Amino acid sequence: MNHEALFADRIGGTQFGKSTEIYKFEKIKRAKAKARAQQPDLEILDFGVGEPDQMAPAPIREALKVECDKPENRGYADNGGPEFKAAAATYMKEFFGVELDPATEINHSIGTKPALAMLPLAFVNPGDVVFQTVPGYPVMATHSKYLGAQVVDIPLLEENAFLPDLSKIDPTLADRCKLFYINYPNNPTGAVATPAFYDELIAFAKKHNILIIQDAPYSTLVYDGERTSLLQRPGAKECTLELHSMSKAYNMTGWRLAFFCGASWAVNALATVKDNCDSGQFKAIQKAACAGIADKSLADGIRDHYEKRLRRLVEILCEVGFDAKMPGGTFFLYTKAPKGAGETTFANAEEASLYLIEKFGISTVPWDNTGPFIRFGAVFESAGEADDERVLNELAARLKKADLKF
Asked: Are 286 and 108 in contact (CB under 8 A)?
C-alpha cells in the first residue's frame, strides 16, 4: 500500500514524517536529557514551562466532586449549557465591566486551542489573507494555511512596546484580510495592550472589514494597572471575537474549558462550526467552573503568586546583566538573550538557551522571530511557597557562575 500518496499536501504530502528538522522545543527536551545524563545529581530548574504550577482553586475542585455525581450531567453538552454561559457573562461584567448576552454573545469551547483551530473553517476561503502577530501562538494561522490562506506575520518589536505597528501594514493587503489575530496580555512578551491601541485596531478593522481575534487567556494576570478587555472599547463588539481560558486564570490546565464572546454574528458562525466538530465539554466541568470564575479573590490570589515570583526573577536577572523588566501581564518574563558566556559566543537566543540548559541545568524558551530573546516563566516547580526562594536563589547562583556577556 502506498500510504505516502494518502497524506494531504498541507501536512507535507509524500514528504510527511521525513523532515530532519528539529524544532526548538524538541531541542530543549534533548538538552534537558543531556544535562541529566552528564550531571545526574543536578536539579533542573525549569523556567520554560508554559502552564500553571498549582492546582485549581478548592471551590472549583469541590464543586466538580459534587457535579460529577449528578445524573443530569451525563450525556452530551453540545454547544454548552446555560449555567456556564451565564457564569462567563458574570465574569466579563465583574472583571471588565462588559455586558454580554449569554444566549447570543457567548459560547463555551473545549479550551481555546480547538476554538482557534476551528475559527478559519468559519471565515477563511482559499486565497484569503490572515494576519498574526509574531512571536506568538500559531494555531489559528496553521489552520488558515491548511485551508489555503496567506498568513502574514505582523512583528511585535520592543521599540513599539510589543504592539503591532498598524501604519506599516500594506492597505491593499489589509483589504484582503479576513482575520487579525492578537494576544494580550501577550505570550511571550508579557506586554499589555493600551486602550489607545485597541481603539486604533478597531478603526483599522472596520476600515478594512476584518474580524479581530483577541486571544486573552492571561487577561486576569495583570500587574500594574487594571485588567482590560478589548470588548470594553467603543465599537469593539461589532468586529471582535475574544477568547478567555480557565487554564491560566484559574489553574485549570487539563480541564479543557474556555469561552469565546463578542460579535453575535461571529459567535454564531464559530458555534456552528464547533457543533460539527465536537459535542461539548463534560457538563460537570462547566458547572464546577461556575463556582469560581467570577470570584475576583480567587483570581487575585493566583495573580499575586506569579507577581511575587516575577518581581524576584527581575531582581536576579538584572544582577547578572540581563535588561529584565517586570512584564505588564502573563506569567512570563521576556528579555534580551545574552550574547555569550565566558569565551563562548551565541549566534542567537536558541544557542544561549541550550547553553544554559546543558551547562547549568537552567531551562528557558528562546525566541528569535524579532531578535534574540529568552522567556523565563514564573511557573517553575517548587515544594511550595516556602521553597520558592530556595529555587530562585539557586538560579541566581548558577547564573553568576555562567559568566554571561551582554
From this structure: yes
Which strands form 340-341's sheet, in the order they lie side by side? Answer: 344-345, 340-341, 404-405
35-70 pLDDT, tens digit each: 888 888 889 999 998 888 899 999 999 999 999 999
Q: Which residue has the cell 540581563?
A: 322
> Number of folded domains in the chain?
2
- The answer to whether the peptide bond before residue 59 is cis (omega within 30 degrees of 0) is no
Greatest distance between any 2 Cα atoms in the chain: 66
Rounded Cα distance between 228 and 205, Å, is 19
SS3 call for 115: helix
Cell, residue 352: 544561549
H helix intervals, 136-263: 139-146, 171-176, 195-208, 246-249
| Distance, CA of 202 to chain centre | 22
Contact 344, 299 (CB under 8 A): no
Residue 135 DSSP code: S
> Is 337 in the same domain as 381?
yes
Please tell me whether residues 185 and 81 are part of one structural domain: yes
- How many Cβ atoms from other residues are within 10 Å of residue 380's Cβ? 21
101 contact partners, CB below 8 Å, separation of at least 6: 89, 264
Q: What is the pLDDT of residues 5-44, one digit of tens each?
A: 999 999 899 998 888 777 788 888 888 888 888 888 889 9
Dist CA 341 CA 358 (whole Å): 13
φ/ψ of 395, rounded to 5, equals -60, -45
Q: Are residues 94 and 204 in the same domain?
A: yes
**Are 219 and 267 part of one and the same domain?**
yes
Mean pLDDT, rounded, for 370-399: 94
Model confidence over 107-128: pLDDT tens digits? 999 999 999 999 999 999 999 9
| Residues 247, 103 within the same domain | yes
**Range of 233's domain?**
58-293
For residue 17, being part of any structural domain is answered with no
Cα 254 to Cα 116, 251, 327, distances in angstroms: 17, 9, 25
Q: How far is CA 390 from the centre of its chain?
A: 28
How confident is the model over 357-382, as pLDDT tens digits?
999 999 999 999 999 999 999 999 89
Backbone angles phi, psi at 394, to 5 degrees: -65, -40
